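Shift notes (night). Ran Signal recognition particle, subunit Ffh SRP54 (TC 3.A.5.1.1) while the centrifuge was going.
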Amino acid sequence: MQQKLERQEFTLEDFLDQMQQMKKLGPLKDLIKMIPGLDTSKLDDIDFEENEKEMAKIEAIIKSMTKEERRNPSIINSSRKKRIAKGSGTTIQDVNKLLNNFEQARKMMKQFSDMQKHVKKGKFKFPFFK
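Came back to this:
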């Protein structure tokens, strides 16, 4: 997975695999409680049921895509979005939201990957240190 991130080859298939692995670990609330140093008293304000429903919706959307669409989301046009939404029991807006969020996550991973490369080469310097 780390190599895929470094080569910027993270796909919706990889994302789906990660979600399914998280589901195997148990409910989201229990997973978050395992994070060391986290103030669990504030967890009562979070609607974990709603978050799990959202994850199920995302999973349904991704599973409604073809393998090619999962590997290369840029090929998804309006007619494909309509088919995916119909197949997953969601709306086109939900499909758009997932695709936009995934693309933002990919860009962020690319930035972290680029930053990591510069740190390894010794070229990365904080702007306020000289």
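Residues 49-117 form a domain with the 434 Repressor (Amino-terminal Domain) fold (CATH 1.10.260.30). The chain has a mean pLDDT of 82.
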